[in-house]
Amino acid sequence: QVQLVESGGGLVQAGGSLRLSCAASGRTFSNYAMGWFRQAPGKEREFVAAFSWTGDSTYYADSVKGRFTISRDNAKNMVYLQMNSLKPEDTAVYYCALRRYAGGAYSASHYDYWGQGTQVTVSS
N or C: which end of the chain has fewer CB within 10 A? Predict the structure, then answer.
């Protein structure tokens, strides 16, 4: 089993920044890729950012492009999401996730393991 634990969420004013962290532990895989998703109340879970299968590229939702940055520290088994210029519409529970196979970076259904989520609230 893989355990993913997010942290770093909180309440921030519009225009502010937060850095989310995701700690991975447990079973390891030789090949995998990580991503971030979010879910606002009453809405479906949506893609935010992810690494490509080869790890040399990153993908972002149009709504966060230029404001959010996904990064990682393989030595520490950590993945991060730096969120700048936050907007009220960024308010959601943010989840990190791991996929074991190539493809499907943008689709929640292609991810095999999920964290419990961390709440991000942006006030106007």
Answer: N
